[in-house]
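We examine the record.
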Amino acid sequence: MLSVSIGTIIWTSIAFLTVLFILGKFAWKPILKAIQEREESIELALRAAENAKKEMENLQSSNEKLLNEARIERDKILKEAREAKELVISTAKGKASEEAEKIIAMARESIHNEKMAAVTELKNQVAVLSIEIAEKILKQQLSDEDKQKKIIDNLVKDVNLN
């Protein structure tokens, strides 16, 4: 089961906000400016078409031709603007995904390192506890003089046998 810590959430949020800030500072303004310029050019084209329509009301056939051309141009400009917008958005999403993956990888590595440190600390504590238990058992075994003599005798026999 995957558990997420508060620190991971905070660092992920900070990284996401940093990416969002960078995109807002450097990417969105040029995009919005380009879209606004496109809209202005579209509006200018539409105004020109309307003026031409008013001037050409007497010439019905020419008027229809100009309106069709203006509509085609408007559609073309809108299509190009949409394509540019989609391209910029997909690029930004791709970069954000890459950053998120990097942050997740760093978080996993950090979790692994912390886990290894905890395991090492636990091993050290078990070793200290084992030594303390052995020390208490030895003190208890060596507290009685008869037990000390038996241990010495057993050790001497073992030495003689070896």
About this structure: Helices lie at 6-55, 60-141, 145-161.
